[in-house]
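User: These chains co-purify. Model them together.
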Amino acid sequence: MKRLPLSVIGGFLGAGKTTFINRLLTANHGMRLVVLVNDFGAINIDASLLQSKREDTIEMTNGCVCCTMSGDLFFTIGDILDRTERPDHLIIEASGIADPAKIATVALAEQELRYAGILTIVDGLNFPIQISDTAISDQLKSQVKCADFVAVSKTSPDQENVKQALTRLSVSAWTSADDIAILQSLLFANAILKPPKSEHTGSHPEYVHWSYAAPTAMTQSDILQRFEVIPNGILRLKALIPCDANHAWEIHLVGRHKTIEKCTAPHKFGIVVLGHDASISEIEIKNWWLHS
Amino acid sequence: MSTTTVFTAKKIITMDRSVPEATHVAVRDGRVLAVGGPDCAAHWGEFETDNSLRDTIIMPGFVEGHAHLMAGGMWKYPYVGFHDRIDPEGREWKGVATAEAMIQRLKSTQTTSDGIIFVWGFDPIFLSSERLSRTHLDQVSCERPIAVLYSNFHVMCVNSAALKIAGYTDATSANGVVKDANGQPTGELQEMAAMFPVLRRMQIDFRALSQNRYALENYAKVAQRAGVTTITDLYSMLEDEDLDLMFAVTGQKTYPLRIVAALGAGAAPKTVADRALALAHKSTQKLRLGAVKIMTDGSIQGMTARVRWPGYLDGHANGLWNTSPAEILALTHEMQRRNIQMHIHVNGDEAAEVALEALADAACAHPWPESRHVLQHCQMMDRALFHKAAKLGVVCNLFMNHIWYFGDKHATVTVGPDRAARMNALRTALDEGVSCAIHSDAPVTPLAPLFTAGCAVNRKTMSGKTLGKNERISVAEALELITIGAARSLHLDAEIGSISPGKRADFAVLGEDPYFVAIEELSKIPVLGTVFSGRTHLL
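Assistant: Joint model of the two components:
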């Protein structure tokens, strides 16, 4: 059976995790998501999208399901893996103080899961103050440091004190938590061969996007060699590369984590890469893939 | 008309100051009708005499204020811990001290029907030989998956067959899959994310260790062997289907245990409070609901407790919050406002300080004089913190068994001899006027209130040292803490905790008098069984 991609949403109390999850559940991504949250309190689904609501599960007309976590998280993940029909993607909301990496590790350990990133949401209004609170600063720092993607809520990501706080944690790329289109691309990479459309301005000045529809056949060692010379600044990559007559390689790069697996050949091959324009340009990505 | 039974005993220690000792107790409708001599029931009409306990010492049924239902469920699997332990059927499991002894124990362990071996309770801190690895476990079997779960539930060691079913190899990149110098997995798996793929394929589900009939029935058996008639399950999910089973099992006439289950506060304050209040209405005589449990920090031996300056002995980083101080404050306000009792886990002194400040703040905002919230563990609280708890009417339930089980390690490894000497500072707490209880946190340490009382009286460590002699208390005080003290922490002192007219007829039946054994022998007093609501349950 196909691996189930798992992403973890981290961030401190009040950072905006639930707001983001609300948006994700109702966004037009065509994915059947299962989202595990701590609390339904703030999950607010428009009635027209609501199919059923029970004490611990909300089912939506778009095929997404939102459940509260009960008992042990990991065994709940086991239940989802054991379903006869697996969802397209599993999203877990980490609790406010939790280390998202402790949850996401299961995607590297469990063969039926695929690591699909940690997105940490940083509270744009309060983070600079919170991070100086010695009682919690270490844990807040780990939430940001383990993240593959960082999003800033409630304010412009360019606000000086947020920028300083993140830079001090060696985070060089982040986005606005309102930019649901780019965040979806980072988590799902489902827009293969189709550049993400912003809901705001129609372009993403802070992101570079490169895609290529006709990759040539490669062996596993070709792929590994290519990744040895990968330039810095690539946040997300998804590729379907021809392997032999009946097979393809499905490759995912999420932050620092890479998975390569053989699958049956799809109708369409291709590669899509997202990076941050502060660290990489489209031409650098192109040169890496086509000419390295 | 209801029948009256008069039990005769060698001695009844009532824990009721007005009539501290008696020889007879009259029981009607499951409650204590009268206490005193042979004629204590004379005013109450006809009665039958029950002489089955005449050679025993009767005390109020012991109350365990901090334990977990898993203490019943774990016995589905063989025990391989360092200390000898008695299972619910009364069989003694000898402790395992070396890797060699572990191999021998596993070789004699029966494989479950699906061909796996799963054992629990191992503690590497006491292992005198080299670190346990798959090489040891492969000597037992290379074909059948074997997993040894450590007593902290955070780590396990598995054999090569178990690594194989999870697909763990040198290529595995997950944290927690420990590798040797050659990059091969050693078999040690740290934390749930790394343990889960093996557990899943061995069809071991931790949720099922608490929520099933087997766990509930064994919990009662474990309690009966310890003289316990009221116990807690402190952090329960209490889903509707769990409740159906809990009501069905505890509702049986012969089920000899009252369970106080606290809802785990794992959601937003309002959600937790709504659920707790809904649960409170469902309480029965033997399943008490309505309180909540809040986690704050981790454990001291795991160096995950939040401790104040000067921190851990070796400069280890401060511990972790499981609930942040801001969330603790929000939770305490909401629970206090809605009159919901809280049990708050605090191991380190920083966690205790944060919790007390939150409780003080909530108490100012929403006055509730009889709130009686409970700090659980309280291991590093000093006089100032106990004083504050006393002023706030906050009960402290101290983790007394730690002195014996981990005291040596605390003195040498975690916090050093000076702070170890004041760990679980019971004398100080009582002198400050704190309402106290003492506990085992079973299955972390075995359920045995007389052992826990012995720890409070002797403060001896495993190596025989006395840790903090000035914090010792008297036998009478210790007995009070495992009866009326613990009952008070659960808001049940009007119903249980002493043998007094009107209270439930719940008794611990003992073979010897705690006041007449050497204090070092308190924990060795034989428990012969219990009486629950007037019904005798001898072993």
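The mean pLDDT of chain B is 95.
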